[in-house]
Design goal:
The structure is a single chain. This protein is globular. The chain folds into 4 domains: 146 residues, Periplasmic binding protein-like II (D-Maltodextrin-Binding Protein, domain 2, 3-Layer(aba) Sandwich); 98 residues, D-Maltodextrin-Binding Protein, domain 2 (3-Layer(aba) Sandwich), CATH 3.40.190; 109 residues, 3-Layer(aba) Sandwich (D-Maltodextrin-Binding Protein, domain 2); 99 residues, Periplasmic binding protein-like II (D-Maltodextrin-Binding Protein, domain 2, 3-Layer(aba) Sandwich), CATH 3.40.190. The chain is α/β, with parallel strands linked by helices. Strand 17, helix 13 and strand 18 form a beta-alpha-beta unit. The chain starts with a helix and ends with a helix.
């Protein structure tokens, strides 16, 4: 059997289904460590072990075929009774398969050879490089194509993509945070030779069953997986291969919970496009996500808009307070309990378009006379922690835009996520401003006061995960 696996020769098989419907299922996977890969001639990995345990519980015994992802994906779309894992669940794929999962969470990003990567702050920057290595018909390649990328160098092997990156044949490699290290070690390369230069997206991986497969089969597989999660087997298997943060919990949520009786106070600020007031009505992508969480938990929509400094102080000093959107930083990590991420952004120093200021590092930015910041905002806290003494703080971020235009400050600290919105809100054309230097890529969360019950925070996180899994997150525009 080991020799057959090593040679890539696999057999079709018959799986008895517990409902009494005897179905011939073709089960397919790919070589993608640490989820499913061949080691010493034997298929193993976190997803492989989960699938085998599902089969054991359903009294099913069978081999698993290993083939290129493009081939397996094509079979799962065109033949009945095909099971394909591990498959990222996206809104574009939602109606193509029956879904069983989730079985793990993964983060995609653009990787470069260490020390030689291009300076990226957005997807538009990535479109300008000569070539990006992608995995043929993989979800990451599909996503880039949908975003208008035309500089993709497609391959049927992740290992060959890594080799192309290190040899300089491509500038970037789009892959997952867990997969990069595993692929590198598999081919004898130090994972430290590559580095993440731009995060892309978080996704949940599932077992995909072709549409021609009876729905009852998918239901039985899902029930077996849910039972594994309830009795601890799923987590025990996954922990052998994956960090805790990549292991999803069971869904759906329990009907009864302490959260229903929690007197939760929810605060946000006026900071477009995540959360802002429009003719007195609270709007924004983060607002819509929080409202969807409240709706699913059957909690009242009582979000209050306050100045950021006040909301931050309340979240630090009172119990059962939720504050969004809050940037998660090392110096804040132990101050709150976190639910997210809601979205990511790149901070930067912005100047008037006609400004002659040029900086290429944080140290150079310290020599600028006056940098406008927002009081107690994450960017201000980050710069203070880095030793900046030239910050001009204000309680209203729109003041910074006006001050930079009238020359009262030299630079303004903002981000690619909200700079243009805030400029327009202040009556300024965003084209009158320019990015002088990108600072860092960060993620924004819902921050709960440290006194908040873990059960409350866990249910909010689980509900957010569900929103991401079922496609609602994408429909709300939280790309």
């Amino acid at each position: 059997m080991r020799r057959k696996l090593a040679l890539g020769i696999f057999l079709f098989f018959v799986l008895p289904v517990t409902s009494g419907l005897s179905q011939e299922l073709t089960i397919i996977s790919e070589n993608s460590p640490p989820f499913n890969f061949i080691k010493d001639g034997v298929l193993t990995g976190s997803s492989t072990e989960v699938v085998r345990e599902i089969m054991r519980r359903l009294n099913q015994t069978a081999d698993i075929q290993v083939m290129t992802w493009a081939r397996g994906y094509q079979l799962a779309q065109t033949r009945p009774n095909v099971v394909l894992f591990s498959t990222a669940r996206t809104k574009e794929r939602e109606n193509l398969f029956h879904w069983v999962g989730p079985i793990y969470k993964v983060r995609f990003g653009f990787y470069a050879k260490k020390g030689t990567g291009p300076d990226l702050t957005s997807l538009d920057d990535a479109k300008k490089v000569s070539a990006i290595a992608t995995y043929k018909d993989d979800v990451r390649e599909q996503l880039l194509k949908s975003q208008g990328f035309t500089n993709l160098d497609s391959s049927k092997s992740p290992a060959s993509n890594l080799k192309k990156l290190l040899s300089g044949r491509v500038d970037l490699w789009l892959y997952s945070n867990l997969g990069v290290s595993s692929i590198a070690r598999q081919i004898g390369i130090d994972p430290g030779e590559v580095e993440l230069v731009l995060p892309f997206k978080d996704y949940y991986a599932y077992i995909a069953l072709s549409k021609g497969t009876p729905q009852v089969v998918a239901q039985e597989w899902q029930a077996a997986l849910d039972e594994m999660k309830r009795d601890g087997t799923f987590k025990k298997i996954s922990r052998k291969w994956l960090p805790e943060e990549n292991i999803p919990e069971i869904r759906p949520l329990p009907a009864k919970s302490k959260i229903a009786s929690a007197k939760l106070k929810i605060f946000t600020e006026d900071s477009p496009p995540a959360n802002y007031l429009d003719n007195g009505k609270l709007k924004g992508v983060s607002v819509e996500i929080v409202r969807e969480i409240l709706r699913r938990l059957k909690l009242p929509d009582k979000i209050q808009t306050v100045p950021w400094a006040r909301g931050y102080t309340l979240a630090l000093t009172q119990s059962n307070v939720a504050l969004f959107s809050t940037t998660r930083l090392p110096q804040r990590e132990k101050l709150f309990k976190w639910v997210g991420p809601l979205y990511s952004q790149t901070w930067g120093f912005y100047a008037r378009k006609d400004s002659a200021i040029q900086i290429s590092s944080l140290e150079e930015a310290k020599t600028v006379s006056r940098i406008g910041t927002y009081h107690k905002d994450a960017k201000e806290q980050y710069l203070l922690a880095k030793g900046f003494r030239n910050l001009v703080s204000t309680n209203r971020n729109l003041n910074n835009i006006r001050h930079i235009m009238d020359g009262t400050i030299d630079l303004w600290v903002s981000s690619d996520f909200n700079m243009s919105y805030q400029a327009r809100q202040a009556g300024i054309n965003p084209d009158q401003l320019k990015l002088v230097f990108p600072i860092k890529r960060v993620e924004n969360y819902i921050a709960f006061s440290i006194q908040s019950a873990d059960s409350l925070v866990n249910q909010w996180q689980q509900t957010l995960d569900e929103i991401k899994e079922d496609g609602t997150y994408n429909r709300l525009g939280a790309e």
